Amino acid sequence: MASAGSPHTIEFLGHAGHRAAQMMFPRLSAEQIARLDAVGQRRRVDRGEVLVEQGSVAPAFFVVVSGELKMVQQKDGREVPIMMESRPVTLGPGQFTGGANLIAGRSGLARVRVAEPGELLVITADALRRMVQFDAELSDLLLRAFLLRRAHLIATWQGDIVLIGSRHCAATLRAREFLIHNGQPHSYLEIDSDPGVQALLDRFALRVSDIPVLISGNNQVLRNPTNVEIAESLGFKRLLKLEVVRDLVIVGAGPAGLAAAVYGASEGLDVLVLEGNAPGGQAGTSSKIENYLGFPIGVSGEDLARAAWFQAERFGAEIAIPRSVTKLYCERLPYVAELSDGAVVKARTIVIASGVKYRKFDSVGMERFEGVGVYYAATPMEAQLCRDEDVIIMGGGNSAGQAAVFLSRSARSVRILVRGRGLTETMSRYLIGRIEQTPNITLQAFRKVVAAEGQRHLERVQVQDVRTGEIQTLAVRHVFVMTGADPNTSWLRGKVALDEKGFVRTGADLRGDDLAHWPLARAPYILETNVPGVFAVGDVRSGSTKRVAAAVGEGSTSIQLVHRVLSE
């Protein structure tokens, strides 16, 4: 087991931080280092040598046998030590480099430089991935440290990736959501209020019309970048091995897709997950999921998604973000998924886990304010935008209830509008009870928003009583739309059977005409579409229970069926 931490990283911490630092920067025992010796090589290093470059994929995992390493970040052309409890972080004998990025093959957040000459144990990323799959003790120790280090960098970001934007710019919200949901630490500067922004704009010859602007560590400047451009700039849009025929390609990294990835990869399948935006899907935007088994105090959708993402990669699944699938070709094997950039990936089996998206509301003017007063998720970022202001939530499902409770902590008031008579038929009882006990949440039945008005930002809405037609104008700058969802299946039309609402039919729900061209003697499996070896799981599947636990169950169950197909 790991002993007390190195004096370079532990002794300066007070009692409260001691245990956290022990887990974040543990020291391996001689016996643990000996086990790692079997999969690595030793080499001497000199003072000043750079082992890992910030913004690049780490070439290897390094264990300090003797000497000392320091962790720094580049800022304004100079090296700045990564700090913890006001002291620079260094690594001594028995300690090791690396973070969650190492397992994922993404670019690192820090530079690692040799502070004192000595000897290192060098292990490739592939060898490390194999090690964490089969050595339970080292796996727990290393992965816990990796996750804690990344969480520390996110919570106390000390680097120089900067996003400049405005709360009156919808593209700013989109870029911030992409960075946050993909776990990318950054600083955000609000052009309308943060001091010093103008000097930064002048330094890079930027105009207000350029926002959002992303400035990365090497002073690369992106003006109003797409999510794909952000991913490429920060080094986490990985190159795919297009010539490889995968055992399984999973489309979508929500709970169902991530569950399929974890179980598939852990059982030895070559798994590729394609996700167009960020892990977690719709569930990933939930502020708190309180009825998911094993989390008695609840868990945020973002935390659940991030843990599952890392777990899937730990077992060897490859997760490619942002990679949107636009077409599916399943006339013959191997099946082919075409991506938005024209690239194609091949697979023996497919799991469709593309989920759903909140239904856009057709009120007059509503679309114009998406991202600048109209939102489809309630995360800490949106909560910050509407702090001490009045909020409207449209919808009566669990997502609306979770959003109402969460936003009530920071908003002045939260008004839930439903077209029906109340919440009892659409929302879990525990959420209804929570809403009833929260004084700044009110419920208004038989109401809908019919118009939105404002200049650069939403300023007011018109609310109609659906029984009488009476319209009331409310001065509200923030509306959360959670009024049902549509399936992400436009890329599947004409390829697999869909129901009248666009959800994917599977198993016993397939009708006679759906199976007119079914080529096998057996009937489709329970989660199988009308194309052999193509499955649908989670919210995208017709008749599925729209709950996180149900999606996880379907994702894991699909792997048993994938194995059957691969053995046929």
Can you characterise this structure?
The protein is an alpha/beta fold and 568 residues long. It folds into four domains: 15-155, Sandwich (Jelly Rolls), CATH 2.60.120.10; 162-234, Glutaredoxin (3-Layer(aba) Sandwich); 245-357 and 486-567, FAD/NAD(P)-binding domain, CATH 3.50.50.60; 367-483, FAD/NAD(P)-binding domain (3-Layer(bba) Sandwich), CATH 3.50.50. It is 26% helix and 24% strand. It is built from 14 helices and 31 strands. Strands 15, 16, 17, 18, 19, 20 and 31 form a seven-stranded mixed β-sheet that branches. Strands 2, 4, 5, 8 and 9 form a five-stranded antiparallel β-sheet that branches. A hairpin with a 2-residue loop joins strand 6 (83-84) and strand 7. Helix 9 runs parallel beside helix 10 (301-314) and helix 12 packs parallel to helix 13 (429-436). The longest helix has 20 residues, at 136-155.
Helix count? 14
Question: What would CATH call the class of the largest domain?
Answer: Alpha Beta
Helix percent reads 25-40%
Low-confidence stretches: 1-17
The backbone outline, from C-alpha atoms, is globular
Number of E-state strands:
31
| Biggest sheet architecture | 7 strands, mixed
Domains, number? 4
Strand content: 15-25%
CATH-scheme architecture of the largest domain: 3-Layer(bba) Sandwich
**Rg value:** 25 Å
> CATH homologous superfamily of the largest domain?
FAD/NAD(P)-binding domain
Structural class estimated from helices and strands: alpha/beta
How would you state the average pLDDT, rounded? 90
- Kindly, what is the distance between the CA atoms of the first and last residues, rounded to a whole number of angstroms? 45 Å
Output the CATH topology of the largest domain: FAD/NAD(P)-binding domain
